[in-house]
Specification:
The complex is a heterodimer of chains A (318) and B (255). Chain A is mainly α and 318 residues long. Chain A contains 13 helices and two strands, in the order ααααααββααααααα. Helices cover 72% and strands 2% of the residues of chain A. In chain A, a hairpin with a 5-residue loop joins β1 and β2. Chain B has 255 residues and is an alpha/beta fold. A six-stranded mixed β-sheet of chain B has the order 8-9-10-3-11-12, with helices on both faces. In chain B, β6 and β7 form a beta hairpin. In chain B, α3 crosses α4, α3 runs parallel beside α5 and α5 runs parallel beside α6. Classes of the chains: A mainly alpha (318), B alpha/beta (255).
Chain lengths: 318, 255
């Protein structure tokens, strides 16, 4: 048996000199692939569980027709607009506060550093839900907002649901962003600051032109996550009577008794929002990766185009 | 003999915490001179170089650049610390090249060279670009202007860094081991650029382990060890015929 096995490959090369590199055939290898039975079994199990889940929802007492009917309801769309508005504004506020407190924490002044630490400690250490309630009920302890000669008004008139929501979400976000920005600034090599100083650039110029643009590469990905979190966390503003997406859905649910259906509607819009902003985050990260990678990775659209052209090529060859 | 030295150090001391790095440096660098600083690592040569443009603050002694005190203003017999903006203004005239290049990675080669003239001197983009193109051409990298540093070799990055420093039209150039981080075959290109600068009469202080460069291009050489100047003189004399035992021991290892 073994003899026959040895002979066959030795006969194949015409040169007859067995053992040289020419003995290996040049054509592509056609081996029998390993069978992954485990993969088949797990795929079947997962599909079965998924099918059972879908089936049970179809059997549940859900009036599915309500979902598309209410999806574009005027109050739902208004609520979604409010969700986007409060999320974007809170995030902006968080970003500005974040940069401010990050710079304060890194400053050589121990007082500003300590104050920044205290801010982060308090606003990260208490639940955002509690913070929202504190802002909303501020009138209980300060009935009148009195800024001396500049401004004076009843607190209940000042602390509208919108203001309470913005302060609650924005100040909380600022504490998280401060840590993200600080990590970003500290990730930039000290040699960059030195090179900038050696060229005669001042502290502010160095921060603005050299350090922050490089820190952005580190800051952007977690900030994108923060924003997507914010879109969802903003649903807590229901606690301060702000008319956001969830609140609008709940209002309709209360009057129509389509409770679960309205939660589905809200979920669909939350998913749509987070999906859209995830795509935006991808392109933003790509923009700030300039210079750190030798060549930027292809965008999904470019990949599709590239794949289409490689798909075509073998056809041409045939 | 009345020529004012470009750099003058008198009893310069520098400590980091308990580590006493510079222990009384005395030296003078004449204008248009190529001044080489050699010595073992940890001898304080890089620290001294960084004191010259006030990246480090000296603890004792006096240090002058072009007749002006570094980091301080003297009124009567009192010294006043300079403000950050005043320190920055003085650094404009002193170029520095680092061992690790320290190019700005988020800017292309030409943007690196244009940045300081535009930000610090308020130059127009067109003026800065024209000068940057000229300088990149001078260091042999005119065709790499649009490349990011990550797309350049170490030797090319270091030449861009030299062009970046030259863009401020400095009266003094500091080189902190400019070829130490380079592959051996890339060292020559950088040294060629420095040789050209020396021929044009730039005052240069070069911390280096390239004894060949010191011998060929250097006008003066100082051997430092353990925070003091051990031996100084003409590079050819010091390198060929060292007087001090410590100099002899060091040179026997590197030559």
């Amino acid at each position: 048996m073994t003899d026959k096995f040895d002979k066959e490959p030795a006969d194949a090369p015409s040169s007859g000199s067995a053992g040289t590199a020419t003995a290996v055939p040049a054509e592509a290898i056609r081996a029998i692939p390993v069978r992954h039975y485990g993969r088949w079994i797990s795929a079947v199990v997962v599909v079965a569980v998924l099918a059972a889940l879908v089936f049970s929802f179809s059997q549940g007492d859900v009036r599915w027709a309500t979902v598309p009917e209410k999806l574009f309801d005027h109050s739902i769309l208004t609520g979604m607009w409010h969700t986007i508005l409060i999320s974007v504004l809170s995030m902006l506020m968080g970003l500005l506060l974040g940069v401010l407190f990050a710079v304060m924490r890194l400053s050589k002044n121990p007082v500003t550093g300590g104050v920044a630490w205290l801010y982060i400690w308090f606003f990260r250490g208490t639940p955002v839900y509690v913070q929202l309630l504190i802002w909303f009920n501020l009138a209980l302890i300060f009935p009148v907002l009195n800024l001396g000669p500049i401004y004076k008004n009843n607190m209940v008139d000042v602390m509208t649901p919108f203001v309470a929501a913005l302060l609650g979400l924005g100040l909380n976000e600022g504490a998280y962003m401060a840590e993200i920005v600080r990590a970003g600034i500290q990730s930039v090599d000290e040699g960059q600051t030195e090179a900038s100083h050696a060229l005669g650039m001042k502290q502010g110029q160095t921060m603005r032109r050299v350090v922050l643009p490089q820190a952005m590469r580190v800051i952007i990905p977690p900030s994108g996550n923060e924003f997507i979190n914010m879109l969802k966390t903003s649903s807590l503003v229901v606690a301060v009577q702000y008319q956001d997406l969830l609140r609008s859905a709940q209002d309709i649910a209360a009057s129509s008794f389509a409770t679960m259906e309205m939660f589905f509607v809200a979920s669909i819009w939350y998913l749509a929002l987070t999906s859209v902003f995830s795509v935006g985050q991808y392109y933003l990260e790509r923009r700030f990766a300039r210079g750190s990678l030798r060549s930027l990775p292809l965008t999904p659209w470019q990949k599709i185009k590239a794949n289409l052209s490689t798909l075509r090529r073998p056809e041409v060859a045939r | 003999m009345t020529v004012q030295p470009m750099v003058k150090a008198e009893a310069v001391h520098k400590s980091f915490g308990l580590a006493h790095i510079l222990k009384g440096i005395e030296l003078e660098v004449a204008p248009r001179e190529v001044f080489c600083l050699v010595g073992p690592s940890g001898s304080g040569k890089s620290t001294f170089l960084r004191c010259i443009n006030h990246l480090e603050q000296i603890n004792a002694g006096r240090l002058w650049v072009d007749g002006e005190l570094v980091g301080y203003r003297q009124k009567g017999d009192k010294l006043y610390e300079l403000k950050d903006s005043e320190v920055a203004a003085k650094r404009r005239d002193i170029g520095m090249v680092f061992q690790r290049f320290n190019l700005f990675p988020h800017m292309t080669a030409i943007e690196n060279v244009m940045e300081a003239p535009m930000q610090v001197k308020g130059e127009s983009k067109a003026t800065a670009r024209a000068r940057a193109e000229r300088l990149l051409d001078r260091v042999g990298l005119a065709d790499k202007a649009a490349n990011y540093p990550s797309q350049l070799s170490g030797g090319q990055q270091q030449r861009v860094a030299i062009a970046r420093a030259l863009a401020m039209e400095p009266k003094l150039m500091l080189f902190d081991e400019p070829t130490s981080a380079l592959d051996p075959e890339l060292v020559g290109d950088v040294l060629d650029v420095m040789r050209g600068l020396a021929e044009d009469g730039m005052t240069m202080i070069v911390v280096t382990h390239e004894m060949g460069f010191a011998r060929e291009v250097g006008d003066a050489l100082v051997f430092m060890d353990d925070g003091i100047v051990v031996e100084a003189g003409n590079p050819r004399d010091v390198l060929n015929n060292p007087q001090h035992d410590r100099t002899k021991a060091f040179l026997s290892k590197v030559l």
